[in-house]
Amino acid sequence: MAELELIARARRHASATALVSAAGSLSYAELLGRSAGAAAHLLDGKTDLAGARIALLLAPDAEFVVAQWAVWRAGGTCVPLSLQATAAEWDHVLRDARVTKVITSDSLTGRIRELCDSLGIGMLRTGFASGVLPEVAESRPGTLLYTSGTTSRPKGVVITHANVAAQVRSLVEAWDWSASDRIPLFLPLHHIHGLTNVLACALWSGATVEMLGDFDADRVLERVATGAYTLFMAVPTIYVKLVAKFDAAPAAVSAPWAHAFGELRLMVSGSAALPASLHARWEALTGQRLLERYGMTEIGMALSNPLQGERRPGSVGLPLPGVDVRLMDDDGQVIEAESQPGEIQVRGPGVFRDYFGREAESAASFDGSWFRTGDVAVIERGYYRIMGRRSVDIIKSGGYKLSALEIEAAILEHPAIAECAVVGLPDDTWGEAVAAVVVPRAGQQVPALPELRDWCRDRLSPYKLPRRLDIVAALPRNAMGKVTKPQVVKMLGEPAAPGRR
Ligand code: MLC
Ligand code: AMP
After folding, report:
1. 314-341, pLDDT tens digit by residue?
2. Which residues constitute the domain of residue 445?
3. Are residues 421 and 300 in the same domain?
């Protein structure tokens, strides 16, 4: 029977350890066996889930992977939910994706039961049954990931099995993944950094993933110091947090960390700009020269500094294998010359299929077969360097992409607030920090920042909450009456340079 390549490859590593988590470890054979049983349980007598969207609300441990593979092997589309989302945010995803079932665990079920009941969506645990599994073509959708963009509500990015396979093949080749690799996973599993670059690449290669749960710097340092890993992948904010640990520790404590990091065969940074100063600091502390790469939910990874060769600070390197990249100027001309900024456009088998149920937006995001990323870059001495983003309404905070419009819409529900503009301000820890500038309603008192954050907690995930609040008499607007965000940033006394500093 033809089966998904990821599954077929796992059979070759049957006795190797695939996953290690608090609950113990799982070999590839066990992962295959458990996910087959869970797939049959999900099918419940049907022959194929035929792309039905099944959401996962599960902690990032082996159970998550069993459920993910089960959905795939039963012919379904996996929709991983953020564990930090509010009910309102889940509500959007469950409705937009037309989710039919949510797989969850005993400890999480209480958080989503009411919502599922109100939407008529069934909840289930990863079970076990026996039965015949369908053949699933690589061209079928396997994953639906929700990503914020220039629209207020997140959009569902439809990723086929073939897309993931192409993304993974490219990274396995570029970064030389092998069955002897061991990598810690502490990134969330509703985004591609954790899901594809760490988990899928490792399982494709027969490597071992140690699932550590949410990022905990002390735990990560403790495990790294034992020499447990060969590879390490993180967002810049995590490197900032690790540097802070080095700074706070006496030399006798940090020396084994430094030595162990120095021994890893590769450390990667991505999902947001890695400041050159942080690149230098990390190398000074550990001897490791971080490899920075650039990617996006819609395309997987596109650009990377080389494994062998110059890893240039402040740069994202060159197109990855199998990925075509071009820069396009505002007049629709492809830029060939160095040092001229243009929008990054990407083409290749890793590029997503479409935004779920959004034909017009899907069409508008492509120029023929080229996906328009909205990111602006230049080529300098042969390497791409990210300059920023076209949209002022996208904020990258700690590696999460946030929509300023979504945050504004939530804040505008506050009865004391008449107008609101949300911008990202440069921030040493988060890359960009969310700042809200508001105009009060006549005669109303806008709450202070802590109270406003608390008020927003029912509406927004904690990482979307504003970290700064300014109350003004009026927002700067252009002749059309549109708020001019660069002016807002200036009002706050910050240089306007979102994305890359
Ligand atoms: C946590 N907080 C954040 C935040 N993460 N605030 C802003 N931005 C963030 N990213 C909030 C917490 O809710 C808490 O608020 C307070 O900050 C302190 O939290 P913390 O304990 O210090 O932070 P921590 O929980 O350790 O999280 C930091 C982090 C996390 C960096 C580990 O943000 C993270 O996992 N980021 C990675 C996201 C990711 O995987 N992105 C990849 C997208 S894919 P309070 O109010 O509770 O005190 C992509 C494509 C590509 O981008 O190229 O890879
Ligand atoms: P997401 O939509 O969450 O997948 O985030 C993708 C976005 O993250 C890209 O469009 C970029 O804006 C940003 N990004 C990813 N990697 C880098 C990087 N190395 N440098 C700067 N920005 C990056």
Report:
1. 999 999 999 999 999 999 999 999 999 9
2. 394-492
3. no
